[in-house]
Amino acid sequence: MGVITDSLGRYELRGTAGTWELEVRYLGYRSQKLVFDVKKDTIVHILLKRDIEAFDEVEVRGSRVTRTMESTHAETIDQDQLDRLRGQTLGETLSGVVGVDILQTGASIAKPVIRGLHSDRVIMMQAGITQEGQQWGGEHAPEIDPFSPGQIQIIKGASGVEFGIGAIGGVIQVIPRPITMDRTFSGTAYLNSYTNNGQLAGSVQLEGSPSRDSNFAWRLQGSMRRAGDSRTPEYVIDNSGFSEQSLNSTMAFRTGKFNHRVYASTYATKIGIYTGAHIGSPNDLQRAIDRGRPAVEQDFTYKIKAPRQEIQHHLLSAETTVLVNKLGVFDIHYGLQLNNRKEYDIHGRFNRDVDEAAFALTLTTQSLDVRLQHLPVYGLDGKIGLQLKRQGNVRSSVGFLIPDFRSYSSGLYAIEKKEFGSISAEAGIRLDYHWIRSYSVRSPRIEGRTDDFIQPSGAIGLVWNIDPSFKANLTLGTAWRPAGINERFSYGVHHGTAQFEIGDPDLKSEQSINAEIGFEWESDLGGIRFSAYNSWIKDFIQLRPDGTIVSTIRGAFPQYGYQQYNALMRGLELSLHYHPVEWYETGVKGSILFGEHRELDEALYMMPAPSATWINNIAFADNAWTKQNTLQLGGKIVSRQTRYPALVATEAYREPAPPPGYVLLDLGFSTIIKGPKQEWNLSMDLKNVLNTKYRDYLSRFRYLIDEPGRNLVIRMTIPF
Amino acid sequence: MKMYSHISLKMVAFACIVAFTSISCDNPADDDDAGEQEFITKVTIRLEEQGSTNVVSIIWSDPDGDGKGDFVGTAALKTNKTYKGSIELLNELADKPEERDITKEILEEADEHQFFYTFSSTLRPYAAITITDKDKNNLPVGLKFDVVTSALPSGTASQSGTLNIVLSHYSTIKKAGTNPGNEEDVNITAPLSLSN
Questions:
Q1: In contact, B49 and B80? CB cutoff 8 Å
Q2: Residue numbers in B near A348 (CB within 8 A)
Q3: Shortest CA distance to B43 belongs to which of B192, B191, B194, B190?
Q4: Nearest CB to B26 within list A295, A394, A444
Q5: Do residues A406 and A391 touch, judged by C-beta distance below 8 A?
Q6: Which of B4, B30, B100, B164 to mutate: most A Cβ within 10 Å?
Q7: Which of A148, A231, A461, A547 could connect to A475 by a Cys-Cys bridge, CB 3.0–4.6 Å?
Q8: Residue B77: CA count within 13 A, CB half-sphere
Q9: What is the average per-residue pLDDT within A52-76?
Q10: What tens digit of pLDDT does each residue of A376-391 get?
Q11: Are A500 and A550 contacting, i.e. CB atoms less than 8 angstroms apart?
Q12: For the complex shown, is ipTM > 0.90?
């Protein structure tokens, strides 16, 4: 005899008196067996224990469960897609998502841009905690092993309520693979190779638990990557190689009502930076632009010399979940991160040892999140939470970039949801407090000071489930962030741009309000997903030339100051896919974004140009050896950015016009090889088939060198 | 079971508190030490007039080492003279005395450096500069040089202009002694006057 409860968990079983065994099951919770003697009508309250691991499994399959507000625009790259997409950098992996672009610094550094915003305006989460590196720098890539995620979720638009300070442009959540307690031992090996830069990358993952029904499970993953210089269609990009090593481990265990998970990872990378981009003076910059290619053509090498970055990131994330009677699920999450960044210049000024870092910064972050996902109260389903964070940044180098600082943040939030027939409504509110003390510097002269900021955020969302295949949503979200440490205290020449950058310690905080409408329609034949958004950013902070010229030992530099003004960003995103016959599927994705400086009535600087991708998948019949054979033909078209501000730095130097648009063609083949015991995934992708020479507006080197040319990428996944 | 739960709850709370208060590897602090920054805080060009004891000095200065610097006054040269010139670069903020003299460091790496001196068009017809020192490859360095001035046209008592001083660093391309490299360690332009 069996019964399914209603949405509130009520149930009724009719039977005869006697001894009964009752087994209760619910997805995401541990099943429970109860034995009792029934003599008369009896009311039995059963509280299920949340199965944290199974719960995560659910999260992988659908985005309906926890974490994000249902109405926000989120896109998920799941395990299968990830295995197919995994790129040489995490940024590259994300670039297939509509509305996500890449801020590129050579072939080795890629930073995700969500709807034109990046760095301090996008939150990156790893294993449930906010990744804290020196993310203010546009040429500072996220310190995450591209092999480690099991799923990546991209939340677009202001999401300050749930994610706190900084979620102005959106959030990228890197979610580890779910860990299960029912497998005694298994392993997977991943192998990638890239012909363009002679890159080899591999990762081995082992996991298991002592027995099939245990309370403990573990996982260990180690990855390595080594890349040489990238090649454009015409020349080798000198010193563009990189290397990466990382190790992560997960332990999950249960003690009584508690579920624990401890995740620890360590990541180290060494990244070469194109030598021609190290620019000492405005004359050097002009020469490099005029040349438009390396001064000296170098041969391909794996050697990484200066200028280069060396970064280590250590992360510890410990989470405990407990179901408390009549309240709900408590989640306590502690995070500790240590980020160590060293940047080496091409040479010391004269005979200084180049083994001495020009800049070295160590950032230590601790965070504590406490969250209660409460049981429904008056039809309200939701969560309340408290977040605390402590940070210390220490510089230990000869050069000055940013002063030392110590900061504390705290945030308190609540998000509730209620269903009204086919409409589900959500609302959230949050209050954040941020305290920061910046320490003095003797040269350049910077005074120490203490500032604090307090600001609310809010969100409202409506989802209208018109029918099972069609839904529409409306979202309003806000977020804010205090001015970044670099925006407040920069002082000096930025090598690579030939600008004398000056911060403003009194900058106000930046605030964004995002309004968005969207709809989604899915049928057996295909689907459409559309969204339109309008994002107002109050006191948007941007570096702009202020018309003065600074005389320095290396010549006269245009002075750039961090300025604040109101900005408006509007955009459309559309994805379509059509599946007319079993063996063929086609899809188109496109996005367009307009950024506007509201006070000067001009375009915003460095906004992604309109772009679209087209994908065709042709499936072939299975055979004795292989299955799911798919041929993929795709293309990407990026138009020239015609909307850009006339940033006139000096009479002699103004920002050159954005590079022309381009079209890239890709060709791919993927298959699953049937092995004796396990199945091997194999894919081969030829990127930039025609070896097109192009430059991208969002590349930091767009005026200096071309982007890399043709690249054959081979990926293998071998379970054992 | 019950006991386990309590232990783990306490453990979590304890671990959090300990960690939050005792992670001591981050110690942000005031930085009162200009330390070993590679500043050039002073550039001095000495021009010794031949046949006299007159010395003309051209001084560029950035005393606090914040990057913004400028020339102290306008140097005055006389027509029909030969000057023995030398240039000196200093980091007056260096803590160690041996690191103050940057000229010495350039001399040690003379084969990777070269000075380029250029008079503005207003002065070029009446002033010429010749580098007199050589590196180990017998290529010019520019720490020592001669300046020869000639007469201004009749009716002109004085002429103003500038002298541009570039220190080129050759790290990626080889020094050939003729053209500037693609990296500049110094690029300053001094105001000058030339009079009878």
A1: no
A2: 38
A3: B190
A4: A394
A5: yes
A6: B30
A7: A461
A8: 36
A9: 50
A10: 888 898 999 999 999 9
A11: yes
A12: no
Q: How far is CA A159 from CA A168, A305, A478, in A?
A: 7, 40, 6
User: Distance (Å) from the C-alpha of residue B66 to the closest C-alpha of chain A?
Assistant: 4
Q: Is the pLDDT of residue A281 over 90?
A: no
What does each C-alpha distance from B118 to A398, A560, B124, B128 come to in angstroms?
A: 33, 29, 8, 9
Cβ(A320)–Cβ(A259) under 8 Å?
yes
Asked if A440 and B35 come within 8 Å (Cβ–Cβ), the reply is no
Question: In what helix (H) or strand (E) does residue A634 lie, and over which residues does it extend?
Answer: strand A626-638
Residues 165-184 of B with CB under 8 A from A: 169, 171-173, 182-184
Q: Are A199 and A218 in contact (CB under 8 A)?
A: no
Which two tokens mark A5? 């409860």
Contact between A439 and B2 using a beta-carbon 8 Å cutoff: no
Chain A touched by B95 (CB under 8 Å):
no
Nearest to B65 among A288, A366, A443 (CB): A443
A543: amino acid identity, one letter? L
What pTM, to 2 d.p., does this model score? 0.85
Question: CA angle B163-B165-B168, nearest 5°?
Answer: 155
The structure tokens 């730095």 sit at A649
Taking the C-alpha atoms of residue A496 and residue A508, their distance in angstroms, rounded to an integer, is 28
For residues A476 and A9, give the distance between their C-alpha atoms in angstroms, rounded to a whole number: 32
- pLDDT (tens digit, 9 = 90+) per residue, A255-274? 888 899 999 999 999 999 99
Say which residues have a Cβ less than 8 Å from residue A307's Cβ, sequence separation at least 6.
A239, A272, A273, A275, A277, A278, A343, A344, A345, A346
Residue boundaries of the structural domains of chain B? 1-31, 38-195
From A2, A132, A127, select the one nearest A67 (Cα to Cα). Answer: A127
Indicate which of B7, B14, B20, B112 best probes the interface with A, i.e. most A CBs within 10 Å of its own CB. B20
- H or E element that contains B89: strand B82-90
Nearest chain A CA: its distance from B121 CA (Å): 18
Which one, of A155, A173, A169, lies nearest residue A118 by Cα? A169
For domain B38-195, give the fold: Coagulation Factor XIII; Chain A, domain 1 (2.70.50)
Q: Which of B32, B38, B41, B64 to mutate to test the interface with A (most CBs of A within 10 A)?
A: B38
